[in-house]
Amino acid sequence: MKSKTMYHIECFTPQICPHCAHPINREGVNFIRYMGTIKDGVKTIDPEYPRIICKHCEGEPFKIIYFETRQLGDKNEAERLCRESNFINLMEVTAYGNMTQDHVTKYTDANGKALPRLQPRMQSVECS
Ligand SMILES: [Zn+2]
Predict the structure, then answer these.
(1) How far is the centre of ligand 1, averaged over its atoms, from the C-alpha of 60 (Å)?
(2) What's the pLDDT at 123?
(3) pLDDT score, position 117
(4) How many domains does the chain divide into?
(5) How far is the CA of 127 from the centre of ligand 1 (A)?
(6) H or E segment to which residue 78 belongs
(7) Contact 56, 24 (CB under 8 A)
(8) How much distance in Å is there from the Cα of 82 to the middle of ligand 1?
(9) Percent helix, strand, coil in the chain (nearest 5)?
(10) CA 44 – ligand 1 centroid, Å
(11) Is residue 98 part of a domain?
(12) Structural domain harbouring 99
């Protein structure tokens, strides 16, 4: 199956920790995903997923709301979107099959309506 190195970027809110106001923009560096807990060898998935934990203060996990993710073959374009819009968390990924084409993932509410543009970073700008 065909594979290709691509660049995955995300737009979600908040991008600042609600506990300590530290920026949230690099998974593994300043935030981690909270998947749930393991008790007696059984992992229970967090019903509130996706939630994340700020690595700066390690406070309570908090809910994030996705607006959009993109996967691009052009690293320069992914970096530009992170610089000039509200995309964060640039990750290099290996894509396979028809995921090797550039694509946008849009998130909707339970009724299939696009989520309102909620000012992910500072209450003023859109994702794209
Ligand atoms: Zn924090």
Answers:
(1) 9
(2) 37
(3) 56
(4) 1
(5) 23
(6) helix 75-84
(7) no
(8) 21
(9) 10, 45, 45
(10) 24
(11) yes
(12) 3-106
